[in-house]
Design brief:
74% of the residues lie in helices and 0% in strands. With 107 residues, it is mainly alpha-helical. It is globular and about 45 Å long. 21% of the residues are buried.
């Protein structure tokens, strides 16, 4: 799983803060969509706002601090949408993903 603590460890191991926060941002977005059922459009709006603030056209032009801020905004949006925080515990994330897989078999 990814959370603030594992992200910090990945930054220390990889030395690539931008890569870690881009991965974290994508993880929160996809987990919220697939596992928690949050509309992807919410995240796309936030991403577009970040690009506008930075004055860039492409996601890859955002800086590490932009992506770190997006992670926080994405998690806030999940909390607003679901009235519960984004799961931080990797085991909770894993069990949520497993549940989503089994749930998809029922549809």
């Amino acid at each position: 799983g990814l959370n603030d603590s594992t992200a910090k460890g990945l930054i220390e191991q990889s030395g690539d803060r931008r890569f870690v926060f881009d991965s974290y941002r994508r993880f929160v977005q996809m987990y919220a969509d697939v596992v928690l059922g949050v509309d992807l459009g919410i995240f796309e709006k936030q991403l577009e706002r970040a690009k506008q603030r930075r004055g860039v056209k492409y996601d890859c032009e955002l800086l590490a601090e932009d992506l770190e801020a997006l992670v926080a905004v994405y998690k806030e949006r999940v909390h607003e949408e679901l009235n519960m925080p984004f799961p931080e515990d990797p085991m909770d994330q894993l069990w949520g993903a497993i549940g989503a897989v089994f749930g998809s078999w029922m549809t």
